From TrEMBL:
<dbReference type="InterPro" id="IPR027303">
    <property type="entry name" value="Gln_synth_gly_rich_site"/>
</dbReference>
<dbReference type="InterPro" id="IPR008146">
    <property type="entry name" value="Gln_synth_cat_dom"/>
</dbReference>
<keyword id="KW-0934">Plastid</keyword>
<feature type="domain" description="GS beta-grasp">
    <location>
        <begin position="78"/>
        <end position="158"/>
    </location>
</feature>
<keyword id="KW-0436">Ligase</keyword>
<dbReference type="GO" id="GO:0006542">
    <property type="term" value="P:glutamine biosynthetic process"/>
</dbReference>
<dbReference type="InterPro" id="IPR014746">
    <property type="entry name" value="Gln_synth/guanido_kin_cat_dom"/>
</dbReference>
<comment type="similarity">
    <text>Belongs to the glutamine synthetase family.</text>
</comment>
<dbReference type="InterPro" id="IPR036651">
    <property type="entry name" value="Gln_synt_N_sf"/>
</dbReference>
<protein>
    <recommendedName>
        <fullName>Glutamine synthetase</fullName>
        <ecNumber>6.3.1.2</ecNumber>
    </recommendedName>
</protein>
<keyword id="KW-0150">Chloroplast</keyword>
<dbReference type="GO" id="GO:0005524">
    <property type="term" value="F:ATP binding"/>
</dbReference>
<dbReference type="GO" id="GO:0009507">
    <property type="term" value="C:chloroplast"/>
</dbReference>
<feature type="domain" description="GS catalytic">
    <location>
        <begin position="165"/>
        <end position="431"/>
    </location>
</feature>
<dbReference type="Pfam" id="PF03951">
    <property type="entry name" value="Gln-synt_N"/>
</dbReference>
<keyword id="KW-0809">Transit peptide</keyword>
<keyword id="KW-0067">ATP-binding</keyword>
Amino acid sequence: MAQTLVPSLHCPKGVVCNSRRMVSTKLWNSLLVPPQGPRSRKVGNAFKVLAAKTESSGVVSRLEDLLNLDTKPYTDRIIAEYIWIGGTGLDIRSKSRTISKPVEHPSELPKWNYDGSSTGQAPGEDSEVILYPQAIYKDPFRGGNHILVICDCYTPAGEPIPTNKRARAAKIFSEQKVVNEVPWYGIEQEYTLLQTDVKWPLGWPVGGYPGPQGPYYCAVGADKSFGRDISDAHYKACLYAGINISGTNGEVMPGQWEYQVGPSVGIEAGDDIWCSRYLLERITEQAGVVLTLDPKPIEGDWNGAGCHTNYSTKSMREDGGFEVIKKAILNLSLRHHDHISAYGEGNERRLTGKHETASINTFSWGVANRGCSVRVGRETEQKGKGYLEDRRPASNMDPYVVTSLLAETTLLWEPTLESEALAAHKLQLQV
């Protein structure tokens, strides 16, 4: 049979084909000139079989087989992925260890340590930082009984290190007055997907801009929606892990997405958001896309990225709760600068008074007004109870800081009578 020497055919992603190969003339012609009629489908199948038989494709297949192995029939041991927050306050770190059997509570897990000098959290001469397991989630990447473990960080003497924001939040949420009010949080995490090599939003022409904002929010279509597979994969991964994710949507700026987590109670809100961010980092890593939580990734007439935080207490959710909400808003107005300073790096580039934001320098609130610092829903006003939405937090905020600060300001902090009266007068003028 006659044979033809040809260059390598285009192979699937992840498969390295030989640069030269011998194929029969008949097969080569069948690949170049698809047969007429219904037989054309068979050509595609034949090519797939040919590609699957390459040596490198076999390697990929065997690797996938190993990654998907179910270890439960052979061992009780599981893999626990210990996750913590690094020195920048945004970098998520993790490493794996074997646990002798499945566990149901963080207290069953051992403490662990890591090299804090490599994460900017300890000096080289005393680099050991201790990981305390705090929350467990199912691992959607490994499956089975394998788990993800949210940890916070301590010195060997048992003191929280400076970047451990969870410890202080847990203390606030353990205050009896806070416990009695059962604080609920619904957090809207916005994020932007970037092309790997150029760090430019997904779907945007390299070095150029798409059409103006308008057709992209909650949009459908190849020319309007970029990154849906990542959003959907993340949605399912969160559900599998046990995170109380409540929805997702495409955002106003193309290449930007949002998901919502909640209602979560107290410290669980911070744990859920950090675990969801870890999942998103892993999924974008696998997709070859860069994730950014920058609050204003593209300067100019483009929406920034926030992390709007919906908040309510037991008293706010009961009859007469609207008056409690207004008292909480008054307290928030008096500590506006304290909150702004803790609501994320670079937030001044986002809170300009444009693009559905309030000015960073002025506190405001309103019903159904997305240009305010704090928004109250129309339904809350009508029912006389419900929740408030703090629209100030940036997309890169620390959820432990924001959630605990909201509880502290509205439940534990008491303003002076004079400042309270002055603030009440100012807020009354806004409405």
